[in-house]
Please model this.
Amino acid sequence: MRNSWLLAWREFLERWNNRSFRWMLILGPCLMVLTIYLLLLSGNQGTNKMKVLIADPANLLEGKIASNPIENVQYFFYDDYVELNPFKTSPKFNEFDALVEVNEKVLINKKVFLFYKESPSLALKMKLKFDLERRVEEVMITQFTTMSEEDFRSIKQPLNIDFRNVNDPYGQSSDEVGWVGFSLGYMMMFFIAFFGTNITRSINREKSSRISEVLLASVRPHQLMMGKIAGNWLASLVQLGVWFALVGIGLVILKTWIVPEFFTPEYLQGVQVTGSQLKELGLEANAPQNDQVQLVYQRINYLWLLPNFFLFFIGTYWVFASFFTVMGAMSGDHSDGQQFAIPTWILLSLSIFSGYNAMAFPESGLTDFFTYFPWTSGMVAMVKLAVGVSPMEYLFLCVAWILQMVVGTVCVVFAGRIFKQGILSFDHKASFRQLAFWLRKS
Amino acid sequence: MIEVQELTKVFHQKVALEEVSMRIQPGQVFGLIGPNGAGKTTFIRLLNQIIAPTKGSIKVHGTSLNVQHVRSFGYLPEERGLFREMRVLDHLVFLGKLRGLSKFESNKAALDWLEKFEITSWNNRKISTLSKGMAQKVQFIGSILHNPEIVILDEPLSGFDPLNVDLLLEQMRNFKAEGKTVIFSTHNMNSVEELCDEVALIHQGKLVAKEHVLTLRSAYKSGNFKLRFRGSKMAFAHALWTWFELLTCTELSDSVYEAHIKSRGDYAFNQVFERLSEAVKLELIEEQLPSMQEVFVKLVTHEK
Model:
């Protein structure tokens, strides 16, 4: 055990002393925070100022539109039809950013097209929709009913059918949260692929440099394998830990100093649509904070997800790393290692697919299979844990974790045996026949 | 004592070592000689449990070879290997710790050895910056850092310049003086002659001979003597009669000659002395034993 630890520590120091490893400790989280920042911005990209020309040949809107005009949006009325080509090319319409066509049928089919030259931001779209919908409603009420505006709005809500899982009757989970689980699983696989291939490379290197012969005179082969796995695991944990910590700090910095406006109820005040106004129109789903902000800052249960992420990272890393050690033990040189890496990459891809499958078809038989298949269970677990699981489901995930640990241990013992038997097969491609022979021999 | 019984190793139907049995006494310097591919390295790897035997057993001090034994050995493999990115001192400390030393002990032993080899200036150098010979020196130190009782060296002299060969031989002499058992394979027959108490010749996986160096050389003596005498060259030649053949005779000074003779039968030293002392005044008689190089060639050629 002491020697395994010594080997692990040496392996860790080798990673740590690598300059690119230390750079990635800082650069990785910075890139992630930048990605999150762009994600947040994506909810508000596009122009925030617009001059809108409303072509209203029937004068339905009577030259009126906004009850509370603001500087960002200016409406101009035109009492004739406007074709798209002249709107695009004629100097007469140069100053306008968008064209809204309001014809006589709008009161029947309630369909309005807004043609823009530059896409408006999400907030501005909401403002335009709000203004037009409100004005058309006023016209409809005047022309077709004797009701007050308040009465009309209270009965106009369409039937809203929401599809929900029987295990999630309140719709607490969602695709977005599932994607968060998938992303965490993806990150897990990224780290495993990165550090796992290091294990194969390291074994190959030691075989080539023949240091393994010196090491094997001091340690048992499976201890050597354990040392490699543990050393790389330690390095990956350090990197993950630093990444999570820095990303956490980055999120706080984003919220406090970089984009604090995303977190205030007045987020959309640039176009002056308040929460109460949205509610009035039945648009409260588009709350003042955009979906991404809500997702990143409110809907992810970090205290639940992160400890479980580390737990399943251990299991998944163990089962993959042990497989990588088998590959390293089997291969005679670097090119051989690449050849043997193919099955590992297939498993990694399968794991990614299993995560997607768990999101799309959470109750399918295939998802059940992937839950217990050691090389995919980590990924499926992350999706399931993000979406939410019952205590019984959590228990089953723990069983899958134990299965990962058992399979990983068996693989490490196998790897040790193969390594010991194949130690003299430097620069020698191991055939499956030979592999079977080695296993039988040991 | 190391006792090997019918040790056999077969690699994919190729017999690398076939029923080799021998005993290596404690405190001996034991040489393993044989042509390339004879099975010396396989034998050494089996001693270090790098590979498992197909058949046979190895006992150390009466008990079957186990991990603790192997861990206590000092082992320098034929194929040299170090972690290229590590620094010399760190690497040595790491190897020492692997062999059971504490960090302090390992560090102290490493520094002592670096000083003994006058290479303390390498402490902070990366292994990748060392030449092959330098790296071999570091690896040699790494293999004996834990002060092992049994030192197993596979071709320790290969790749070294004459100065470093001397340095290593000197070190092996020290091991012998300290009562350590040294097992080493080599093609350097001078070192075998000079250092080894016993040698084993392995050829085509089989143990061809295992003897004390002198016994082995004597076994292959060809009856050659070197003499220095004072007197008449003619009288000397007559005294040889039909029993000895005069190979060379050189006058060193006035009536002082040095001659090389070859016995035509199995005549012993005293017979030579008796026969010649009547004719001339003998100042020196020395039986010329074959070198280990000659013995090696004879043994291998004979086996062929």
Remarks:
- Chain B has eleven helices and 14 strands.
- Chain B touches chain A through 29 residues (CB under 8 Å).
- The domain at 2-218 of chain B is CATH 3.40.50.300 (Rossmann fold).
